[in-house]
Write a structure and sequence with these properties.
- Helix content is 17%, strand content 41%.
- It contains eleven helices and 51 strands.
- Strands 32-33-36-37-50-45-44-41-42 form a nine-stranded antiparallel sheet.
- The two termini are 32 Å apart.
Amino acid sequence: MKTPNKKAQFILIMALSLIMLMVTAYTLFFTINRVQHSLQQAPTEPIITVISRDFERAALNGLRYASNYYYTNSNLTEARIAFSKYITQWAATVLQTYSDVGLELWVGLDEDVIIHDNYLGNVVIPKALTPQEAVKEDSWFKLYCYGRRGISVVALKLKCNVTKEGIIGYEDFYFKMLNATLIKVTKINDTAFSITVNVFAEEGKPVLDLDARNFNVTYMVNVTLENGGWELQWGQPSNPTIAIDYGNGTYKLIVVSDQPVYYFSNDKTFIILSVRDNLYVKCELCNTGSITYRFQSSLPQPQPNEIYYIEILANGTIIWNFQKIADGPPLPPIPVKHLWVNVSKGNDLNRTYNVTYQVERWEGNKPLNPFIETSRINSTCRLVFPLNFSDTTIRQKNVTIWWTFDADRPPQQQLIYFEPNPTAWHIIRNGVYEINLLANVNYSSPYLGHDNYTLIMRDLKYNKQVNYFIGISHTNWYSFAEEGGIKLGLPKYPKELPIGENLTYTGWKCYIGPIRAVMYRSSNNTYDVESISSENPVIHSDRICHEEILIIPYGVHYAQLKLYVKWINDCAMTLSDNVENGYVHIKGGPYYCLIGMLYGSPIDYSNDYEDGLNYYAFEAVGSNEPVQGDFPSSNDIFENHLSELFTDVKPGGFWEEKRSLSEIGRWFCLYRKDEALGDLCFGVVYDDKLKSASQYFPINRFKQWPFIGEGWRGIDESVAEALFYNKFIVRTSPTSESLSFFNDYAKRIIEIDAITDYLAPFESLDWDQWFSYYWYLKSVLGYLRYDVPKGLTLDYWVVLYVDYGDYKSIAAHAPMFYNPPCVIEMSTG
């Protein structure tokens, strides 16, 4: 079966919509310009009769324009502003025409107009004396749509005096309505169905003489793809719709599709029916009003921060944390602002409350700007809402997505705080934490510290911060001379980080909605950290293609990060200047950091030891208890280390523990445990694919270390073990110029690296021998390297976590990210 050209369909629909708008706009313009002519064409009629008749025509034109504008642009505020301007211009024209007869004129509503409807209840058009009040109070006309009943109605009052003719206190009330009701939709076969609809005007008068041109049907179809698969799309029949007029306002439509119609349950299908009377007033109906899902948590017991942000795509696919949960009924192609999301409260599945949501636009895995409510659901849309399981012991929640009839629904409350600053940091607050996202690589802040790490998470209670990083974080080795001619090599970390297309800015694009922010970056560029502020910054575009998505939801203790990395060339990660042809040379102590976190900055340096994150923990495979440890509290360790470093030139002041990455579970953290100061934990939960990604590299290591330099001890490359380093650095910044590289204060680092440990041959050497051997290998043999093949792809997610507890909090909440809730029941109403 031939696949329809979606782009061509879209262009055709947009072209028809624009033509309709142009015709409507022209009609309004023409109407205003002919007002004076129509007012003067019957000079024998009383002036008040002419004005009254033209007032009714103007009100009808306004309703016609507003209804067509909204169903094309989904923005009722703009339609109402245009309506009020049109009425204002009409009134000004009438006053100018009859300026010589003492005409006084007012148009508005001086009391509420209430319409009693057996389906919608009371439809209220509120009092509004001026055009400004009409816009503010959503008055003068109303649109009710996307239920089985649709109403387009205008109510306006005219008051005028014609003093020279002795007419005082004349009033005219104009009320016009299109009222359509969708009676039923009946399946005929897999490619055809029928629709029965009633169409009435005000006072229950039937609307007669409609034909197929007055109806437009949109419905869900199964479209066969070129690869043999299928997907759900909204379509319209290419065959003419047959309209049967039963009289008395009842019509039956026969719709024949050129694609199989999608029936989701009990022969039900989603349809949107557009009805237009012969006055060109329009309304739209929907045969379903809600979709209900029953979710079940994968956690056996409720956790205090167990809040999921569920995504439902337009085609019905349900996602949590970049993982597909289920397929469900598609969302209807209606204006976004009509949607409501209700979630059950506590253990009572029938007691629900409204939650704030947002609708985002994505093209595949790439977010699109803007996230707005004045748009219609289409194939790019995702509905996002919070699902709170912390208040239920039955571990189930009902979620109902339904659409309101009233087009004047107020916008969603803005909860996410966003402060853009392209010259420094973007600031995002979600009510629990703040994230500082580096925007300009040349910016330096003593307060924030670690300016090269691009992402800082700070809790809003204790104002502690942790830096997170990923990328080609291989080490850059330096040499300098001290007294006695001793040559010391120390690393500067990190060596190279991702950057955006613009070489000054880090490349983050910020998409801010009411309840979550989505930050996106994609490019082929990385930059050398040390060179970026120089006159000749070193930018590389031949290493990796990288894509990062950072999601910051409101009111939760986590942020979600999706990472995609692909090597675009064969790369030799090496210390050598001599690289074989065909390989891109990445110089400087090679490893790739899959995810890392770092605590310690100038603001931490000014605090006491007890105030810091001085404990660590990580999940151990095969054990019910995590591995825990703490950092040394004495500065003597560092001072002794300095003494050894510059006298005996021997390493000291650290201990190490070796771990295979296969022994490490799915989370790690740094935390503070203090009753007086309050517990605090920062951590990372990560995808299983992160661990499997590291198999492409010769050596994997999980390490934690307060950082003075790179770990200088290695292991045999034939054994894929993980190194676990722990070192300590003094809280006092050294003042000696020769020690200026000790500028990161009291660091605590945990990271997962994919690495070749090129220092393995040096395991048994003392300090002098180590340097001799290192320089010999570098200068004489000319290589210390491993190769990364072109096309190697890493694709994984990580969760950045903060909470006011010790490691037990992240341990309890971690499973919610890799064991998503499931959908056990779905229905439509």
